[in-house]
Write a structure and sequence with these properties.
The chain is 39% helix and 13% strand. By secondary structure, it is α+β, with helices and mostly antiparallel strands. The protein folds into 2 domains: 98 residues, Phosphorylase Kinase, domain 1 (2-Layer Sandwich), CATH 3.30.200.20; 216 residues, Aminoglycoside 3'-phosphotransferase, Chain: A, domain 2 (Alpha-Beta Complex), CATH 3.90.1200.10. The strands form 3 sheets. A 5-stranded antiparallel beta sheet has the order 1-2-3-5-4, sandwiched between helices. Helix 4 packs across helix 8, helix 6 runs antiparallel to helix 9 and helix 7 crosses helix 9.
């Protein structure tokens, strides 16, 4: 059966040649749910199971879906303290699937999206361990020496925040779907008071709990960090700010970002405790984090606008209108509130 974006009749014979294993020729392909940007597929055959990543079927903003960058950062981080799936092959020939793609090893485990598996991480101690494991891997990522890992030219760390603001403001102007004064006001407030920006480390760009794979037997152990499409060299606090955007606490007024988070369950540490763990492990000054949280809300609002645009253009594997556009304004409102609230809890 044909699969949009990764036809097994094409993928199988291609992998048989690329991986030098004829058993890949007879394969099945199934899209892995969860992502709304780059598309992810499980490819299974008698030779084993791998994961294939490719851009949306018709990328509205193609510069945001660079497979070569994803493959490069995974290759560089393999063997470091940061757990990543091992990349196996990069294809830049667009005649194969209509876009560049890469294949990586499949890492089995738990991905904590809207709920936890029955019996998994049920105790407060397990949930604290999960949180600390997540933060500690981010600390390890920010401690990677880019030059030593072969990523010296992966980005331009100087002026990172200024470029990020220009990029995301430009994305918003290109993707705006309606008159949205809250988003425009947040953009103006962010541009008016950017903090002094530390720079240099590798940053993930979309670091959150549901972008990692957890050990099924040990909730405190991250076995793989996924979805590196926004990674670069830059300001580490941008990763922390976005992590806090997704760290729901089950309190009145918490914005339902895009999907519910298990962090709203009892026993998970608060945002303040997440920040304290990061600050303790790194020694970094985190006093400017409210700005980064607000910027995270702005970026997420723009990302949602991009998803809505791709849905309307028929570029997603599932193009149904799920009403996602309704969260854009609340995200901007939450960003504006974060700017005036030094207490991140």
């Amino acid at each position: 059966m044909s699969v949009p974006g990764a036809d097994p009749a094409v993928v199988g014979p291609y992998l048989a040649r690329a991986l030098d294993e004829p058993a890949w020729s007879d394969c099945t392909v199934q899209r892995i749910a969860g992502g709304r940007s780059n598309l992810t597929y499980a490819v299974s055959s008698p030779a084993g199971s791998v994961v294939l990543r490719r851009p949306p079927l018709r990328a509205v903003r193609p510069t945001a879906h660079d497979m070569t960058r994803e493959h490069r950062v995974l290759s560089a981080l393999t063997g470091t303290a940061v757990p990543v799936p091992r990349p196996l092959h990069l294809c830049t020939d667009v005649d194969v699937l209509g876009a560049p793609f890469y294949v990586m090893e499949r890492v089995d485990g738990v991905i904590a999206r809207g709920s936890l598996p029955p019996g998994y991480a049920e105790t407060p101690a397990d949930r604290v361990a999960m949180t600390r494991g997540l933060v500690d891997v981010l600390v390890d990522l920010h401690a990677v020496d880019p030059a030593a890992a072969g990523l010296a030219g992966f980005g331009r760390p100087d002026g990172y925040l200024a470029r990020q603001l220009r990029r995301w403001l430009g994305e918003w102007q290109a993707l705006r779907d309606a008159d949205r004064p809250s988003v425009d006001a947040l953009a103006a407030e962010l541009a008016d008071r950017p903090p002094d920006s530390p720079s240099g480390p590798v940053v993930h760009g979309d670091y959150r709990l549901d972008n990692v794979v957890l050990d099924p037997a040990d909730p405190g152990r991250v076995t793989a960090v996924l979805d590196w499409e926004m990674s670069t060299l830059g300001d580490p606090l941008a990763d922390v700010g976005l992590l806090l955007v997704y760290w729901q606490q089950g309190r009145a007024g918490d914005v339902a970002v895009v999907t519910p988070s298990v962090t709203a369950l009892p026993g998970f540490p608060t945002r303040g405790e997440v920040v304290a763990r990061y600050a303790e492990r790194t020694g970094r000054d985190v006093s400017a984090l409210p700005w980064y949280v607000a910027f995270g809300f702005f970026k997420l609002a723009v990302v949602v606008a991009g998803i809505v645009a791709r849905q309307r253009a028929g570029a997603m594997a599932d193009n149904s209108d799920d009403g996602l556009a309704r969260v854009i304004d609340p995200l901007a409102d939450s960003g504006r509130a974060a700017l005036s609230r030094p207490d991140l809890d």
